[in-house]
UniProtKB/TrEMBL annotation:
Belongs to the peptidase C40 family. The keyword Protease applies. Coiled coil: none annotated. Residues 1-75 form the NlpC/P60 domain. It holds the Pfam family NLPC_P60. GO terms for molecular function: cysteine-type peptidase activity. This is NLPC_P60.
Amino acid sequence: LREAIDLNLPRSSGSYRTIGKRVSRAQAQPGDIVWSPGHVAIYLGNGKIIDAPRPGKTVQVRQMFQSSPVFVSVL
């Protein structure tokens, strides 16, 4: 991924908030980053995300739960 799109992804969740262009919820597209303090997910569209909820849990698709997330477009 890194070489295919020339994008270096950060190691910590806090850094994801600033790696791309911030967009509104209405502008968010599938593949955008959904950031909230201490957590990062990938937006799938229609209010759904894919994420690993916490260590030891499996990756899952679920409804967005964050009350005021930051959406970040990285492409």
